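Open question from group meeting: does this chain pack into something compact, or does most of it stay loose? Before anyone orders reagents, we agreed to write out a predicted structure and look at it together. Recording both the input and the output here so the notebook holds the full record.
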Amino acid sequence: MTLRSIALSLIVLMGCVSQEPTGDVANVERISPNGPDGATAKCLALGYESDLLDACVRAIHADFCGDGVSLTSPGVLIDIHDIVGVVSDTIAWVPEAEWTADGAACISSHDTTRFWKVAHVEPQCVIPVSADCGTGAYGPVITKLAPTQI
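Structure tokens returned:
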């Protein structure tokens, strides 16, 4: 078993993903949304299917509006988990958004989103801001950002 496959196994268990290819796999497995280890492959490896798969792919791409526009930058670490038990919430990071197959159903705060903190752009859609966002009240797939990125 290579260091790369060990890192991938650990990340699949944690549900933690990033978006930049790199040779450094000691801490996290990094992926490219458009490469062979892209968002769909990562979400399938996490165990997502059907609508949860679509929600996971939108979450990794930071496709907040569900229009195919990615509002993030390479290298951003996110935690993905869900309310149906496919991937458990094991990391105490800051909730970012809840996701459906149509994009972000809510955000926890404008200031704690990848579109603002990382990409420095506003989405072209209205996304509800809610203190309950991150609890599973709006969508089945939830993302959190690493505290160092907030």
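Observations to bring back to the group:
Residues 3-149 form one domain.
Residues 108 and 132 are 7 Å apart (CA to CA).
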